[in-house]
Amino acid sequence: MEVINSLGRRKTAVARIFVSEGKGNITINKRELKEYFPSEILQYIVLQPLNLLQVSEKYDIKVNLDGGGPKGQAEALRLAITRALMEIDPESRPQLKAAGFVTRDPREVERKKPGQPKARKRFQFSKR
To answer: Please, where are the H alpha helices in the chain?
Structure first.
């Protein structure tokens, strides 16, 4: 199997991944998965598509992660892994779609408007 590359995005995080056959090693920005995401929850999010298809020990994944916070990065990586797995085995798509991993979450931070402290919050109104 040749190297499959894939892209995943979430909020402002971008994950570019390279999947090859191997022993299940995940390297993120030249660091191990457990070192990059110390939180068990974020590790779980990243490994969800691999665990669903029971292929977590089958592929080595090299990741370039950029932008966003830890949660956004983990979810961007999950989408990238899902897309790569669908490219490797198109029959796995219905399973991944049913779990909700195929859809890119389009929610972004709304911009701050002028004359307001935040995007929707207004300064306190004073009648007098």
So the answer is: 33-36, 40-52, 70-88, 93-99
Which residues are paired to 62 by β-bridges?
18, 27
Q: Classify strands 26-28 and 59-66 as parallel, antiparallel or unpaired.
A: parallel
80: closest CA among 4, 2, 6, 3?
Answer: 6
> What is the C-alpha separation between 63 and 31, in angstroms, rounded?
9
Q: Residue for token digits 């935040």?
A: 118
CB 14 within 8 A of CB 28: no
Q: Using one digit for the tens of pLDDT, what is the confidence trace for 4-52? A: 999 999 999 999 999 999 999 999 999 999 999 999 999 999 999 999 9
Task: State the angle between helix axes of 70-88 and 40-52 in degrees (0 to 180), rounded to the nearest 10.
Answer: 10
Assessment of whether the complete model's pTM goes beyond 0.85: yes
